[in-house]
Amino acid sequence: MPQTGLRPHDQRMPPAINIIALTTFAASLSARALDPVLPHVADELGVSIAAAASFSAVFAFTFAIVQPALGAAADLFGKARLMIVCLVLLGLASILGAMSTSFPLLFATRILAGIGSGGVFPVALGLTSDLVGPEKRQVAIGRTLAGSMTGNLLGASASGLIGDFMGWRGVLAVLGLLMVVASVAVAAGFRGAALTPAPRTNLSMLKHGYRTIFSNPNALCYGAVFIEGCCVLGLFPFVASFLFELGETSLSIAGIVIAGFAVGGLFYTLTVSRFLPFLRVKGMMFAGASLVGLQLAVTALGLGWKVQAISFLFMGWGFYMIHGCLQVFASELSVEARATALSLHSFFFYMGQTVGPIAYGFGLQHAGKSPTLLTAAAVMVALGLACARLLRQTRAADTASSKPQQKGLT
């Protein structure tokens, strides 16, 4: 994990990082693609909006529960191979979704899409970690995150635009074609490097990998990302209702406010290489969590939507300051089972996003808006302090027995 600054010529990244960023961008587009066109989906399939909203829920839940299995598969069969397979699956699921004629069929395709998307982002982080050494890993992961953040930012708005001209089926069809193109780009980009034969790995080695991961004291980072997902991403389903309370009933305004979070994430990717030498890893975690806590408190004040949009920008910046550090810690829990370690990271993060809305809903109903948000703010500040005190830069137990990763990816 980097603790010192890098000179400009040392910050050059392998060209494959750009291919990985493109892949995360493509996969992230699908996460919220149906949200803007749900009324049309519900109307055509003859279901309620609440039922149609289950498409997003099942996508996220499936993404989470497949992480341990996909991480193990990546270590068994090769990260690049699995990512290509998952991209193709995501593309086929989207195309089949565009041809669905009933609610159950479309629901099934969103499950397949969740599996496909779940095998892209964590594996992409594993490939990124394999390409660069620890001293440049946080900057490299920041660039990979830039692709994901841009996809999140443009996904909903682009699908709404496409939906106006081609309908919701057109949205899924375009997404499907994009995933197929992305899979070809990944295969071509890693030809001769990423697609080298996978290392000899078997189930007993995977079992050893899990022991290595959870015997590492830094496995506490999994609990940290669960809390992050719960306190921060769990808030998003309630943003529109908070704005409704202020008399702002336009859904596009809610989209702009939430988009501020993604813009803050992009700002992080552009500034991490400059702030890291000054704040160091511990400072990044505490400062980021404190910034998130402050913005949660601002949200509790119920200010105008323009102020909240700016606040969400700072919230996104702070969130990725701590989240980026936790991703690097996860990438260093094990060398031989790195894909498994990063998939577990995503599993806990998305499970936090599953629990978060439930926790917020309970708090808002029984305690009210301000106490709930201020509690979440205090939890985030405490999380930043705990991470800064408890997480330590250590070498994975299997480092000595692993071969150098920079000369070829699996």
Gist of the model:
The protein has helices at 16-29, 38-45, 49-52, 54-65, 67-77, 79-98, 103-118, 121-131, 134-189, 203-215, 220-231, 239-245, 251-300, 305-331, 338-366, 369-390.
Task: Kindly describe this structure.
This protein is mainly α and 410 residues long. It has two domains: 190 residues, MFS general substrate transporter like domains (Growth Hormone, Chain: A, Up-down Bundle); 182 residues, Growth Hormone, Chain: A (Up-down Bundle), CATH 1.20.1250.20. The chain is built from 16 helices and no strands. It is globular and about 55 Å long. It starts with 15 loop residues before the first helix and ends in a 20-residue tail after the last helix. The N terminus and C terminus are likely disordered.
Features of this protein?
410 residues, mainly alpha, Growth Hormone, Chain: A, 2 domains, 16 helices, disordered N terminus
Question: Layout of helices and strands, plus pairs?
Answer:
Layout: H1 16-29, H2 38-45, H3 49-52, H4 54-65, H5 67-77, H6 79-98, H7 103-118, H8 121-131, H9 134-189, H10 203-215, H11 220-231, H12 239-245, H13 251-300, H14 305-331, H15 338-366, H16 369-390
Helix pairs in contact: 1-8, 1-9, 4-7, 4-15, 5-6, 5-15, 6-7, 6-8, 6-9, 8-9, 8-15, 9-13, 9-14, 11-14, 11-15, 11-16, 13-14, 13-16, 15-16
Task: Report the major sheet.
Answer: none
What is the general shape?
Answer: globular
Relevant CATH superfamily of the largest domain? MFS general substrate transporter like domains
Number of helices: 16
